[in-house]
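Take a look at my tokenised protein here and describe the backbone shape.
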Amino acid sequence: MNFPKKVVLLGPESTGKSFLSERLAKHYQSVWCPEYAREYLLMLGRPYTADDLLVIAKNQTELAEQYTIDALTKQVNTIFFDTDMHVMKVWSEVVFGSCDPWILQELKQQKYDLYLLCKPDIPWVEDELREYPEQKVRNDLFAVYKELLQQQTTAWTIVSGNFDERFNKAVKAVDALLR
């Protein structure tokens, strides 16, 4: 049995991760795993806490496992993930100044084949969940993600430009992975 290659999209808020994940999955006739946090936070009905981030992280891990099983069943060559524990670590540390040990342990154990780091060079799109519209903050968060990726061994590349340019750069990176 061939296991699908796992590709994660990372980056600050409003950098097109969900849109690009879905578009790539369609292009490769594959599947993509959405971000659990969005669903959870929309139903929460109160400001989130550090404990909520742990709930989100655990459910995201479970969701990723379910989508991986789905990808195996469908025998696709690639699965795209809208997020991973890097996001949970950064989010926890930025908002609450620390990260739960469970998230850090899960971050060490997760196994992916490629990261696509989305640069914050497209316009911010406001929605009820996004918190950091300032370009300086978006750039600072991008730098944090970039530094995290530089500290690990999984292949990664930056996707930037308009939506078509991002898509084309992502396809080039994924095609290289699949060769």
The longest helix spans residues 50-74. The radius of gyration is 16 Å. DSSP finds seven helices and five strands in the chain. The helical segments are 17-27, 36-44, 50-74, 85-96, 101-109, 135-150, 163-178.
